[in-house]
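Please, structure for the following, as tokens.
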Amino acid sequence: MTYRETLDYLFSQLPMYQRIGDAAYKVDLENTIQLCNLLNNPQENFKSVHVAGTNGKGSTSHMLASIMQGAGYKVGLYTSPHLKDFRERIKINGEMISEEEVIEFVETHKSNFEQINLSFFEWTVGLAFYYFSQNKVDIAIIETGLGGRLDSTNVIQPEVSVITNIGIDHTQFLGDTLLKIATEKAGIIKHNIPVIIGETQDEVKQVFIDMANEIGTSISFADKQIGEILPTDLKGEYQKKNVKTVLSTINVLQNKGWNIDDSSIAKGLLNTVKNTGLLGRWQTLSNNPLIICDTGHNEAGIKEIVEQLDSLTFNQLHFVFGAVNDKSIDKILDLLPKDAIYYLCQADIPRALAIDDLERKFNEKRMKSIKCGSVQDALCKAKNQVNDNDLIFVGGSTFVVAEVV
């Protein structure tokens, strides 16, 4: 198989939540357990940090990986989704897994894995665990894909568990209230493994406290524990919350005997993009005209983006916008700036909200919009309309950002 054929196999023949939604969601961990058994349980061969949460878990994971890498450790990093290249999901010290290793893994295990009908995400979890084990990483930062309790990554026994925050997202799977979603995320909490909660939220904090007490482990709230924070190269005011979560997590690792000095922490935070290759977090794509993108896509993420936009100075906001069909689009539109010009587009995935439906929603809200034929067409139209001191922002969906990064 070529690399392209291998990806086509993974993307097209097996369910992939990021593309098709509901059909890819599994209701237990049995497949993952069987998968790990077939691979001789590679997840037992390396230390790890487990990161869950509604928003910020990707940024948090990358900052943690950068710090640990700067401290001299060989660091695996598993995140999702990818923006441009499938291999972004699996890295060691910032280097993506090679195309050859992806091909070899799929060819070697294809027949056995087909017997247990793995989802796309289960395939990638197995590949990541196997790759980290084979390459003898010192520690791997493992980000959950969806939820926590039933997420395929939830077979690891980490050094520390991290839950960044709780917001309304993926309600068809995780529940339609913050309490229900928090309960699912709390499923990564394990006996005698410290848990860090990034943000103290009155509605859900007791869920985590009760779970930690019931299971038997210590719990800390990063925003109550960390005062002064350090700067990071990740832009956006919202990153300050993530930095507190990272610093609190590093404290736990230091207490467990990991050798992480202050210099490694400072340099790691300032070199996250360089060390890990993170894309799409308040990323400047161009300065003339000024084009910024961000992958924030649910209500909480959009609120953070709008607050950040409000802090900037510009004449006119041109917003390249698309969404997926399982988000609360009305609630998201209510949060968006009303004086922006919106260039509506449909990302090239089955889950994308149809452009005609998106246009109708904008018309109902009486928001100025231009229907575009594609993401690139939307960006092109925005560039043609932009004047001096205007801002083009690209967002609404991870997959819109993916097509312009």
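Residues 239-255 form the longest helix (17 residues). The radius of gyration is 21 Å.
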